[in-house]
Amino acid sequence: MRALYLAAVLAAPTAGSAAAQEAMPNCQKLVPQQCLHNAADANRVGAGSLPLPDSPRQAACGAAMTEYRACLTWVAENCAHVTQRNGRSFCQREQPAVAPAPAITPPAPALPAGACREERLLGLEWTQKKRLQEALFTLGYRFGQRDGVFGPLTRQAIRDWQTANGAAATGCLTEPQVNALTRLQTAAEDQAQLERLQRQNATLDQFRQQNEQSQEEWMRQRQAESQASFEQWRRDVERRQQDWRAETRRLSPGAPW
């Protein structure tokens, strides 16, 4: 029964209270007087603290003390501030922190109606636009993905490039500008191909030198092994000849050798 009372007290907000306020439960009422050992226990319960740990009657009132501890825990965890209104205590919950609104990046200025007429007349295909984006990227203009689509970021990069080259910053490419960027990208691709071939040639030269060194080392090692084998064979022949002469002298002491 006492558990049901505690649940009702904790869950039911007071009428007219703010959404962030709840009626503060009276934890003291959950502890019967017969569960208190002395006046010190009563004072501690009245102040919202646990009774003295050596109270012998706490064992007989285990359920009540458990509910009392749960009530104190709820107050400690949920009541950031305690306010008084009409003789009653209310829990003021902490309001959740509101994240600051993300900064809004102003969009790039839109192209006026009828703009880029000359560029549209060029009939640039997706691959051509992608190469033009690659050329701008090579020049150091960063604008997101190089996907063959002239979006606001690409248009802004075109304006920056036009401004740097003394042209009108329209964001639209003219035929001479398309040709200039195309030549630039072709030169960059040729240079990248040349550097790639140079790296490959350097790798092949290094491999060939290592191969030649390995062959020379192999030849030296084979020659050394052949020389060592010949010397060993010569020593074996001399030893056998000496053994043969010694055996002949032993068997024919009067022989002239």
Question: What does this entry look like structurally?
Answer:
The chain is mainly alpha-helical. The chain has a domain at 2-92. Helices cover 56% and strands 5% of the residues. It is built from 7 helices and 3 strands. The protein has helices spanning 2-11, 39-46, 62-78, 117-122, 126-138, 152-164, 175-251; strands at 21-23, 81-85, 88-92. Strands 1-3-2 form a 3-stranded antiparallel beta sheet. The longest helix is centred in the last third of the chain and has 77 residues, at 175-251. The protein is flat, with a radius of gyration of 49 Å. It starts with a helix and ends in a 6-residue tail after the last helix.
Sequence-ordered SSE layout with sheet pairings:
Blueprint: H1 2-11, E1 21-23, H2 39-46, H3 62-78, E2 81-85, E3 88-92, H4 117-122, H5 126-138, H6 152-164, H7 175-251
Helix pairs in contact: 1-3, 5-7
